[in-house]
């Protein structure tokens, strides 16, 4: 349902709002004690990364969608292919990446692309970096009959994992969501996918739909379990301004579940999937038989990723300017403008922003806590200049309260949300971010004083 690009945009918006809140916690004494050691963060650079490729086109816009997707009766496939190949080559060269661990084709609806386009992108990746023969290569696909008929061609092009946007097995809800497939299409796509990609088919389901009850959701989950493979992603429906569904709810044409029912729906799904042998490894992702997505895990662990295509996001260290600084990149949104930029200068990057220490700490915290493995102290110290998780969060009254309530676990090796904590993570994150921001501010003040004294 949501690509990582879209989730990162939502996380960025939340960070902006949280940073407007002032904090009063102080780390001055702790910083002074640590002043003899370097407080500069290690860039934690590596020669490997994952690649995300964005195909922006869709047949229609779903009623809940407000992201970078375009409805077009005509797509210049040859031009799109040339530009995707060119930008992939350019960004790989700028990053200096030697190995690509996984590739994810998202959208939009990338299953509307020609298989030879995907093959061309994979070929250019292999020309500029090592792409292991067993690397995870995922395609997002809608379960419409037209796209299901192309799955064999996509496999021949190099795809070895499928992510199907099922969203619901309820015919009325498919209509409410504006989907262009039927339940029968979904069942056929799952069956064909499991035949071609055994053990490597994921399905997306949305909960919190208008009028949804826990009882109906339980029945739907059982239906999903009767046909699914070994990976399921669950996403809570969010109402976004500007969407058809948002207007329908505002006009009282539709009614979505209240927060308590939303929590019950999520709890029902977690319990049902666990009973079927699925283990939760991230807020929205469940797998069994070792079917976790290595591509998704790279994101949550803060690894470098290169985003190709209109509106794609990247986080990697550019080495072309003589400096090695991890930065965020956002590509031009509109496909025609993006293609023009790629044809002129080899890439469609619209914005480049160097990530500060605080940026990296906040991002690592927010992503790491979404997983059941949590945030490791080793990773945190690399970014914090040597300060441990205990140093920063051990004295936080808010964190202590979360630990006592059984929502967080803090040790010398890890900070993680418990099973109960994952369900209410949105209420935990703000306090942790404020603590992180105060630590960063204190660190900057200490460094400024040190510069004055030595100047």
Please report the total strand number as a whole number: 17
N→C terminal distance = 54 Å
Rounded average pLDDT: 88
CATH architecture of the largest domain, please? Alpha-Beta Barrel
CATH superfamily of the largest domain: Aldolase class I
CATH class of the largest domain: Alpha Beta
- Quaternary structure annotation: single chain
**Gyration radius from CA atoms, angstroms:** 23 Å
Largest sheet at a glance? 9 strands, mixed
Give the low-confidence spans: 12-43
Q: What fraction strand?
A: 15-25%
GO molecular function, one term: metal ion binding
Organism: Branchiostoma belcheri
Keywords: Chaperone, Heme, Iron, Iron-sulfur, Metal-binding, S-adenosyl-L-methionine
Family: Belongs to the anaerobic coproporphyrinogen-III oxidase family. HemW subfamily.
What does this protein look like?
The protein is an alpha/beta fold and 455 residues long. It folds into two domains: 4-40 and 357-454, no CATH class; 48-299, TIM Barrel, CATH 3.20.20. Helices cover 46% and strands 19% of the residues. It is built from 19 helices and 17 strands. The protein has helices at residues 4-19, 28-33, 77-95, 115-128, 145-148, 151-157, 171-177, 183-196, 214-227, 244-250, 259-275, 294-300, 335-345, 357-368, 377-384, 389-393, 397-404, 419-423, 425-454, and strands at 48-55, 57-58, 70-71, 99-107, 136-141, 161-167, 201-207, 231-236, 279-282, 285-287, 305-308, 313-318, 325-331, 349-354, 375-376, 408-410, 414-417. The strands form four sheets. The protein has a nine-stranded mixed beta sheet, sandwiched between helices. β9 (279-282) and β10 (285-287) form a beta hairpin. α3 runs parallel beside α4. The radius of gyration is 23 Å and the shape is globular. The chain starts with a helix and ends with a helix. The relative contact order is 0.14. Residues 12-43 have low confidence and may be disordered. It comes from Branchiostoma belcheri (Amphioxus). Residues 43-279 form the Radical SAM core domain. Keywords: Chaperone, Heme, Iron, Iron-sulfur, Metal-binding, S-adenosyl-L-methionine. One of its GO terms (biological process) is porphyrin-containing compound biosynthetic process. GO terms for molecular function: 4 iron, 4 sulfur cluster binding; coproporphyrinogen oxidase activity; metal ion binding.
């Amino acid at each position: 349902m949501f690509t990582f690009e879209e989730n990162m945009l939502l996380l960025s918006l939340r960070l902006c709002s949280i940073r407007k809140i002032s904090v009063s916690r102080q780390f001055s004494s702790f910083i002074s004690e640590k002043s003899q050691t370097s407080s500069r963060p290690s860039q934690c650079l590596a020669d490997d990364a994952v690649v995300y490729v964005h195909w922006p086109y869709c047949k229609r816009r779903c009623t809940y969608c407000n992201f970078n997707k375009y409805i077009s009766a005509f797509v210049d496939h040859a031009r799109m292919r040339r530009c995707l190949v060119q930008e992939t080559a350019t960004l790989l060269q700028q990053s200096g990446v030697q190995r690509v661990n996984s590739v994810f084709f998202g959208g939009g609806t990338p299953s509307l692309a020609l298989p030879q386009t995907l093959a061309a992108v994979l070929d250019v990746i292999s020309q500029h970096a090592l792409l292991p023969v067993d690397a995870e290569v995922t395609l997002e696909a809608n379960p419409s009959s037209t796209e299901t008929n192309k799955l064999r061609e996509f496999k021949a092009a190099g795809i070895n994992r499928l992510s199907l946007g099922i969203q619901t097995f309820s015919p009325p809800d498919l209509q409410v969501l504006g989907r262009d497939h039927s339940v029968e299409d979904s069942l056929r796509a799952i069956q064909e996918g499991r035949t071609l990609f055994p053990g490597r088919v994921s399905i997306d389901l949305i909960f919190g739909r208008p009028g949804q009850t826990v009882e109906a959701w339980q029945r739907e989950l059982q239906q999903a379990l009767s046909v699914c493979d070994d990976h399921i992603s669950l996403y809570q429906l969010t109402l976004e301004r500007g969407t058809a569904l948002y207007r329908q709810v505002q006009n009282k044409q539709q009614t979505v579940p209240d927060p308590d029912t939303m929590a019950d729906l999520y709890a029902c799904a977690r319990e049902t999937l666990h009973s079927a042998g699925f283990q939760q490894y991230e807020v929205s992702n469940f797998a069994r038989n070792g079917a976790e997505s290595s591509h998704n895990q790279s994101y949550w662990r803060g690894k470098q990723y290169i985003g190709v295509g209109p509106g794609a996001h990247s986080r990697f260290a550019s080495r072309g300017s003589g400096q090695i600084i991890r930065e965020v990149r956002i590509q031009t949104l509109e496909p025609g403008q993006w293609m023009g930029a790629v044809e002129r200068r080899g890439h469609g990057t619209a914005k480049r922003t160097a990530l500060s220490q605080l940026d990296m700490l906040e991002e690592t915290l927010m992503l790491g806590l979404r997983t059941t493995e949590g945030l490791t102290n080793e990773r945190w110290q690399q970014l914090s200049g040597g300060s441990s998780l205990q140093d920063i969060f051990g004295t936080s009254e808010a964190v202590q309260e979360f630990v006592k309530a059984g929502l967080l676990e803090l040790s010398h090796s890890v900070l993680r949300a418990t099973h109960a904590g994952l369900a209410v993570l949105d209420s935990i994150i703000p306090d942790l971010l404020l603590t992180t921001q105060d630590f960063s501010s204190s660190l900057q003040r200490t460094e400024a004083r040190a510069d004055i004294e030595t100047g």
